[in-house]
Design a protein that fits this description.
- The chain is globular and about 50 Å long.
- The longest helix is centred in the C-terminal third of the chain and has 14 residues.
- Helix 1 links the parallel strand 1 and strand 2.
- Helix 6 packs parallel to helix 10 and helix 7 crosses helix 10.
- By secondary structure, it is an alpha/beta fold.
- A five-stranded parallel sheet has the order 2-1-3-4-5, with helices on both faces.
């Protein structure tokens, strides 16, 4: 596995594709294909087997949301991670994109430095969005009319401690904050989070936050839990 990701850029604006491609290439990140709509993105993923897809949410024909669902619900053993591209902050499609399996989102006016950092972060398997930002997104959209939830999971597979970690993670705590809250080392917290993701068949922390809300483990407006004594 290479340290730097192989990337597909899917956007109906040629200027966006070219600009992002130049920025990534200048930082040693290989752009293996470009696509102008969802169907082309799906084909590019099948042809090139990238590590990551930068996917515009709104495209003609098959949009980015539908393409993401098809890419991540396929039979490929190791599908790419998907970062959604959007023009507007807190786009109403972002929550649906997270439930479809996207690892996060970026605004199209992102700085070059942030773009490169986000691509590298997503390659590590972590969520692109900070837990608190993910929580804010979910709180904004979870109670609205959205496509059928795709992330409901049986929480009975979790141990009592893992359930508490998931609840706290869903409330917006980072690994460092989780460690302080539970009086554990960050390494132990990472182990708990990894086990939660594996047991619930989740791709990353962003999806774990969604599950915490969809299962009512965390409710919109609930603050972060108080530290354990």
């Amino acid at each position: 596995m290479s340290e730097l990701p192989r990337v597909v850029i899917a956007d109906d604006q040629a200027l966006v594709r070219t600009g992002f491609g130049l920025i990534l290439a200048a930082n040693g990140i290989d752009v293996v294909a470009e696509a102008s709509d969802g169907d082309e993105a799906i084909d590019a993923v099948h042809r090139t087997r990238p590590d990551l897809v930068l996917m515009d949410i709104r495209m003609p024909g098959t949009d980015g949301l539908a393409a993401t669902r098809r890419i991540l619900s396929g039979t490929e053993p190791d599908p790419p991670r998907v970062i959604m591209l959007t023009t507007f902050d807190l786009d109403r499609y972002v929550y649906a994109a997270l439930t479809a399996g996207a690892s996060g989102f970026l605004l199209k006016d992102v700085t070059p430095e942030h773009l490169v950092a986000a691509v590298r972060l997503a390659r590590t398997g972590d969520a692109l969005l900070a837990p608190a930002i993910t929580r804010r997104l979910v709180e904004r959209f979870v109670s609205r009319d959205t496509p059928a939830a795709a992330l409901h999971r049986d929480l009975s597979v979790l141990t009592p401690r893992e359930l508490e970690v998931l609840r706290s993670l869903g409330s917006g705590l980072s690994n460092a904050e989780l460690a302080a809250h539970f009086r554990l080392s960050e390494a132990t917290v990472k182990t708990h989070v990894a086990r939660i993701l594996a047991k619930l068949r989740l791709r990353d922390r962003a999806q774990a936050v969604v599950v915490a809300y969809e299962t009512a483990l965390v409710t919109p407006g609930a603050g972060a839990p108080a530290a354990e004594p």
